[in-house]
Amino acid sequence: MLRRRPRPAWQVADFFAIEREAEVYLASVDACLAEPGVVRRLGVRPQATAENARSAMLSEANVGRALEPSREAQIQFRTLLEEGERLRRRRDYLRNGTHPATVLLCAVTMLTLLFAAFAPWSTALVLTSVPPLTAAAIWRHPVWRISVRLNLREWALVPRALLLVRRIRWAEAAWSRSLEENGVRPLVSRVVEALLGEDHDSLLLADSYDGLRSPRNPQYVVDSRVGRSLAGKITQLEGGGTIAVSGSRGAGKSTLLETCAGDAGLAVIMQAPATYSPYDFLLSLYVRTCEVYLVLHGQDLPEFIRLSPFRRAARTLFPAFRKGSLLLAFGAAAAALVVLGTAASTRALADRHHGAIRARAADVWDQYLADPVLDVWRGERIGTALLIALAGVLLWRLRRWMRWEVLRPRVAIGVMGAGALLALGSVGSLFFDDGIRAVVGKFDIVDDPLMLLVALAPLVALLYLPEFRTRGQTQVAFTALLAALALLFTRPLPQAVAADPDNPVRLAGLLAGILLYRAAARPPATPSPLVSACRDELYRLQTVQTASSVITAGAPQLMTAQTTSLSTLPPNFPELVADYRALLTRIAGEQHRLGQRVVIAIDEVDRLGSDTQALVFLSEIKGVFGVPHVHYLISVAEDVGASFVRRGLPHRGVTDSSLDDVVHVPPCTLEESKKILERRAPGLSEPFKVLTHALSGGVPRDLIRYGLRLDEIETKTRFVELTDIARQLILEELTETLSGFRTLLSKQRWTPRSSAILITFRNLVGQLPPPCPCGSPELRSALEQVAFQHLGRQLGEDAAAEVPDEARELMDEASAYVLFSVTLLDIFGTGDLARRRNEAAARGPAGELELLGQARQELEVSPYSARQLITSIRAAWQLPDERADRTAEVPTPRSGDCPRHPRVGRESGTAPQR
């Protein structure tokens, strides 16, 4: 019951006029606060609690903001509520004036109708006089007269009330949905962000990491400028061509090939073997192309198994027999029932028309066919016999007429139309049957009111009953509907219609029409010539076929036998290339006529070793390139792509004759990295996207790896603040990298004086594990000592001269990487990132966050150019340059755990709670 209530202090007169409106608003607020993304943010910081968020959503200002986008739906809902309230008060008034005698009169009337439906006509005549007499007696009393009027008016309001209840539910659902989507949910997000503080972006609160855990899943692939460039080049090379996709390892070349192959009509993706053999690779490509074509056309691949004939026959026949036996059992039973039900009518129909049809056939034979056929048979019409023979030859030749494939769909459409007409005509003949029309004409609805009541029951249920919300309610309603139909067929009129003698014939015609329609709609099972060709090629390439013959000569006492064996030899390399090009040309021509594209993607060519081996591989398989309407996409290393770009300078190489174009896949920009992480880890805030982009240098594979490291660190340590997670991630990565450098340095030749470098590295690596996110002074001193003093300043000139050149290069690379890591620690390991970022960007281009990823990319080119770029970044961010004390040594390795986080990094330890 709707009733007004005293408005709380947070309510405004125009917001909630009725209590139910406030209930809908509170339900929307609670639903939004219970969403996983919001629950994950609540409780991270002390002030960000569910109680505070709910109180903020109940403030006057926020209620107005939440209701404003859905004001029209609220007004419509309020209008229906007020109308329902008025209707309820009207029904209460009418119900209070109802006299018990009115209920008695209604009960007597209903019982009378039931007896009249099933009792004999004499009894029904007596019973039907009871309600009028009772009503007349009641009507003479003035109190009862008024009560009956009020009761009738109340009953008249029942359909309107039921319909209004449904309209109120629909309006409530529409307003609730609009309120939640357009008002409450966005406002809840802003309220929670306000409770988390201005630096809410520095919290690791991603909604999901499923996209990072499935790096090859195509649904997480984002559109990129390189993908659009490759698609444009494929479109330009409409007649086919060979395009190389070059880039560094992990740049996304494989994903790019798979994306382009997914848009093609027929795509074959092959992995280049590490130890390659051009013949074996081309043979595998040949087989793979045939298999893909067969699968594309819904054909089963042939199984080449080594079994005895009995087991092979058993494995082939038993599944077919099991499937066929099930179909045979149901089909035989269904056919027997249909034949039994329609046998009499069909036999009567055949007896009725058999004589006329036979007489007509005899007349046609005698008048038109008998004399010509007999004359030709006796040899009296030589010319006609010659024409008939030529017609037989022509008919045999027409079996290969290409137009049959074009006419077959039209014939199928005609047969489908005939089946539909036969089925519809069988049902429609009910309305033209004289017997049925006569029965319907004699029937009066007054004679059988129960049939009308049962027939209208489903319509009344659809109009007035509320919608079924559970499976049990739906089953009850369906059972009631079946019961109503069963009761309907117990009445005289439906029984008379169902007992028409021509109904079995109509049923047979309906079934025949459905069978014709289904048979014509089913596609033909005859394989195309290309399908047969691909299947034959698979047998030729993967089996050895042997034929034997036996010759017997001489007298019976001198029997001799000779056996000849014929075995097919595998094709040689030139023949294999020619056969593959011929088959691929036919496939590409068919796909081109269908408006589709054929793509052959050869991936992982860059793992063959050096660029020389890759070029040799391309030169040996380039014989299959250049097929019309076939696009080859080849994944190569940057060296091969560079050799194509500088073609003709100073001489031409194999890439000039093998490749038509090259698409270079550079590392992602910061914006592209943000799009990738937003698709794969929705809800990840921008500072963490920038951090993973800087560590990965924009390489997608490393970007995904560092994104998973964020999830791993959060699970292991329960850290959610950017400063803690950044220190943990950077120091873990620095530990692994310096351990790799120390392994490479251990392979160099050292002297007693120059081995101080190894001691410095040992002390630095000893300061790192387990990584401590608090930034201890000893660790900071060790990192600065390596980053700013180039490791060699502590050595004398004589000792520095004993350091090998290769070791010196490794030391410079390690020092530049440590400087890069220290820069990331200074930027992301310190709070108030947003303010410092704006200040750095205002000082010049070197303060842009994009340069952090470029600095990581530059480390792969040269440590000296990377150091110069990192120095300019530190200057823009106003980070300290070099240590004042250049003579200090790297502190000795740290013993024990961090005093502030004693168990960080241990999976079995208790991590700090957030």
TrEMBL record:
Basic and acidic residues compositional bias, start-end: 897-906
Which keywords, in A-to-Z order, does the entry hold? Membrane, Transmembrane, Transmembrane helix
Q: Which residues cross the membrane?
A: 98-118, 124-143, 325-344, 382-399, 411-430, 450-468, 475-493
Q: Which InterPro entries match?
A: P-loop_NTPase
Q: Where is this region: Disordered?
A: 880-914
Protein's name in the database = KAP NTPase domain-containing protein
Species of the source: Streptomyces lateritius
